[in-house]
Design brief:
disordered C terminus; 4 strands; 4-stranded antiparallel sheet; 5 helices; Nuclear Transport Factor 2, Chain: A; alpha+beta
Length: 124
C-alpha cells in the first residue's frame, strides 16, 4: 500500500510540473517583452519577438527604449487567441490609453509580432 501511495505521489508531481513548465501565455510574453524593452535588454526582447520584429526595432532602439520606459509598468488586461495568432491588450501605469500587441506562435512559443516604420515610429 505504501509503495502504491509513493508511486501515485511521484507521478502526480511529474504531471504537476509538466503542466506548469509549458510555454508562457501571450499575456506573459507581451509583459516580459515590454519589461525587457523598457530596460534596453535586447537579448530578452529577441527571445520574445519574431525576427521581423527585432529587425525593425534594432535600428530604432535608442528612440524606442526611453519612450517605452516612460510608459511605466505594463500589465496585460486581456488576451484573445485565434489559432496561432493572439492579440493582447496592455495597460501601462503612466498612460491613459491601452495598446494592442499582436503575437504569433512560432515553433510552439508565443512571439510578439510588431514592426516599426522608421519614418513614423508606428507599429503594425
Amino acid at each position: 500500500m505504501k509503495r502504491i501511495l509513493t508511486f501515485s505521489c511521484f507521478f502526480g508531481l511529474i504531471g504537476f510540473f509538466a503542466v506548469g513548465c509549458g510555454s508562457p501565455s501571450p499575456s506573459k510574453v507581451a509583459e516580459r517583452f515590454y519589461e525587457a524593452l523598457a530596460k534596453g535588454d535586447m537579448e530578452t526582447v529577441g527571445k520574445y519577438s519574431t525576427g521581423e520584429t527585432i529587425s525593425s526595432l534594432a535600428p530604432l532602439i535608442s528612440k524606442v527604449q526611453p519612450m517605452v520606459a516612460a510608459y511605466g509598468k505594463g500589465k496585460a488586461v486581456s488576451q484573445e487567441i485565434d489559432g496561432d495568432e493572439a492579440v493582447v491588450v496592455m495597460k501601462f501605469s503612466n498612460q491613459e490609453d491601452t495598446e494592442e500587441i499582436h503575437l504569433v506562435k512560432v515553433n510552439g512559443k508565443w512571439k510578439v509580432d510588431e514592426t516599426l516604420d522608421s519614418s513614423s515610429g508606428s507599429g503594425k
